[in-house]
């Protein structure tokens, strides 16, 4: 086994399932293991409590310059119910390493840690300071990366660029979408279903809203397409209403998932949609505040850090072209601080969160080679 394969197996054996709303230490045993491992490998490590008992871990390797490369990834995984492989007992079959988190995102975590330890041990020049941030709660509501920002991201120096560790099949992802999710409720007076005349039927109103959103509103977003991620989108994802087969429904509620692109503020998107709906249905329709918002990422390909990552990928025989994806990551929150961010890692997003999650060992080792080379680059 290579050092990165061996460390990944150790990381998978430490459960770090996101407890979502529950109060549990969750990622803390993993954060503590990482801190101990880092210290044993010539690195400094500190723990930062961000949520009752749940801790981010920061690992640092000083370089010739205080200008810092940030390596960020998340410690938490999704649930293990329904898994068809052992979640916490990693197994290798045909070059694929199975286990919860193997791909999302303990693979990148093992890559970052072993690359830093290797650089520390090598005695080779270190042009930049390297900080690894392992954060909590990415799979729920991003409170780990928000805590990281509040603490100033790093205390070592200005961050010249960040690699966010997520499965990207070794592609350099520089753009992704954000989202705004909210519930829309149509209301009616109710009553006996044998006498529907003259009464607003909440389900019928909801159906018209679905038609409007799907056939008019969503296509109108096409004009806002961005080069790497395409247009914003809207999908109605949930619908419920009515209380009995012979009762006129008093309410019907639908949930929408509106995906945003760079330049869209999810809260402004909500206000605009609300205005449009209220213009058509001035009474009997309520648009609840968004229950989830997230932000899009669009990193300039001209940033020296992005060009450095592309050079390293090309030299390693990998595709250096920037790519866009639909799902969100911690990167968009780190980019608020004008830090050029790329998302990169071994394994495919299609394997993340699945019952038989795996990472190909060939990609794990290739990702390690890419990060090894990147940490030795002098980036102007
Ligand atoms: Zn992830």
TrEMBL record:
Mind listing the UniProt keywords for this protein, alphabetically? Hydrolase, Metal-binding
Annotated CDD domains: M20_ArgE
* Superkingdom in the source lineage: Bacteria
Report domain Peptidase M20 dimerisation positions. Answer: 174-280
Q: What class of enzyme is it?
A: hydrolase
Classification via Pfam families: M20_dimer, Peptidase_M20
What's the EC number here?
A: 3.5.1.16
Spell out the coiled coil positions from the record.
none
Keyword match Heme: no
An example Gene Ontology molecular-function term? acetylornithine deacetylase activity
Q: Which GO terms describe its biological process?
A: L-arginine biosynthetic process
The record's section on PANTHER family has: ACETYLORNITHINE DEACETYLASE (PTHR43808), N-ACETYL-L-CITRULLINE DEACETYLASE (PTHR43808:SF31)
Q: What is this protein called?
A: ArgE acetylornithine deacetylase
Q: Which organism is it from?
A: Actinoalloteichus fjordicus
């Amino acid at each position: 086994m290579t050092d990165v394969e061996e460390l990944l197996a150790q990381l998978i054996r430490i459960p770090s399932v996101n407890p979502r709303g529950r109060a549990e230490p969750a990622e803390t045993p993993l954060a503590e293991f990482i801190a101990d491992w880092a210290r044993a490998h010539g690195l400094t490590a500190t723990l930062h409590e961000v949520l009752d008992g749940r801790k981010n871990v920061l690992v640092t390797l000083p370089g010739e310059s205080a200008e810092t490369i940030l390596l960020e990834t998340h410690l938490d995984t999704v649930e293990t119910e329904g898994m068809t492989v052992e979640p916490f007992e990693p197994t290798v079959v045909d070059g694929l390493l199975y286990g919860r988190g193997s791909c999302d995102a303990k693979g990148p975590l093992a890559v970052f840690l072993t690359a830093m330890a290797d650089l520390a041990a090598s005695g080779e020049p270190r042009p930049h300071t390297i900080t690894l941030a392992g954060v909590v709660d990415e799979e729920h509501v991003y409170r780990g990366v928000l805590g990281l920002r509040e603490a100033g991201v790093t205390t070592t120096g200005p961050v010249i660029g960040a690699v966010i560790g997520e499965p990207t099949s070794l592609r350099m992802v520089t753009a992704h979408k954000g989202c705004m999710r909210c519930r829309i409720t149509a209301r009616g007076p109710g009553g006996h279903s044998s006498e529907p005349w003259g009464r607003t039927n909440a389900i019928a109103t909801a159906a018209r809203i679905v038609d409007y959103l799907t056939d008019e509103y969503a296509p109108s977003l096409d004009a806002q397409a961005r080069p790497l991620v395409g247009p914003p989108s809207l999908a109605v994802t949930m619908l419920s209403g009515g209380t009995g087969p012979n009762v006129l429904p008093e309410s019907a509620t639908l949930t929408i998932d509106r995906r945003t692109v760079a330049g869209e503020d999810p809260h402004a998107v909500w206000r605009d949609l609300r205005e449009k709906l209220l213009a058509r249905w001035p009474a009997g329709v309520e648009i609840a505040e968004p229950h989830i918002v997230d932000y899009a990422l669009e990193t300039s390909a001209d940033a020296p850090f992005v060009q450095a990552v592309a050079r390293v990928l090309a030299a390693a025989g990998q595709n250096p072209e920037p790519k866009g994806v639909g799902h969100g990551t911690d990167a968009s929150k780190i980019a608020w601080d004008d830090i050029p961010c790329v998302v990169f890692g071994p394994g495919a997003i299609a394997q993340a969160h699945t019952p038989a999650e795996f990472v190909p060992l060939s990609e794990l080792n290739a990702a390690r080679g890419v990060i090894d080379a990147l940490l030795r680059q002098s980036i102007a």
